[in-house]
Design brief:
This protein has 162 residues and is mainly alpha-helical. The chain has helices at 17-22, 41-46, 55-65, 69-78, 82-96, 100-111, 127-133, 139-158.
């Protein structure tokens, strides 16, 4: 279960993405799957908790999401502060643990023969972007978005972001 996932509605999205990919709907589309270890930081910041996470909150997260001494030891080996541990635990829960779906998609793409496809991304005027920064994004946000789109495109085409 993940709180953020595609909604299969039978019309716009007729089937789960990895199921569609498995039967060839993304034939020829290169796929980049991943997230960074600080994905959850935005949610901590929005809640006004950045720099305020306690070890008790870390332990509650571990008990609720991954209750084992081995898991706690593994997390503690990779994070030095309560903030870092909490961020990592919840980034894993929200973005990495649902990862079987993206990883399943990646496995499906590898099994399907390739063809060509283009896509558009970086629109800051709609969706989550509009919610976070407003429908009229500031110029520096647009410039950053354009730079990131260029970097991702360069990476997808040539293997290096420039």
């Amino acid at each position: 279960m993940t709180p953020f996932s595609p909604v299969v509605d039978g019309e716009i999205l007729p089937t789960a993405p990895w199921q569609a990919i498995a039967v060839g709907s993304a034939r020829g589309i290169d796929l980049v799957v991943g997230h960074h270890r600080e994905e959850y930081r935005l949610f901590i910041a929005q809640a006004g908790q950045l720099g305020r996470i306690t070890d008790e909150q870390v332990m509650a997260g571990l008990r609720g999401l991954a209750p084992s001494p081995e898991v706690e030891s593994a997390y503690r080996a990779h994070g030095s502060t309560a903030d870092e541990l909490y961020e990592r635990i919840y980034s894993d829960w929200l973005f990495d643990m649902p990862g079987p779906a993206p990883r399943r998609s990646a496995r499906c793409v590898r099994r399907v023969p390739r063809a060509g496809h283009r896509t558009r991304f970086g629109d800051l005027s709609a969706g989550l972007s509009a919610l976070l920064i407003g429908e009229q994004p500031p110029g520096d946000a647009v410039a950053l978005s354009q730079w990131m789109c260029s970097a991702w495109t360069a990476f997808a085409i040539g293997g290096t972001p420039g």
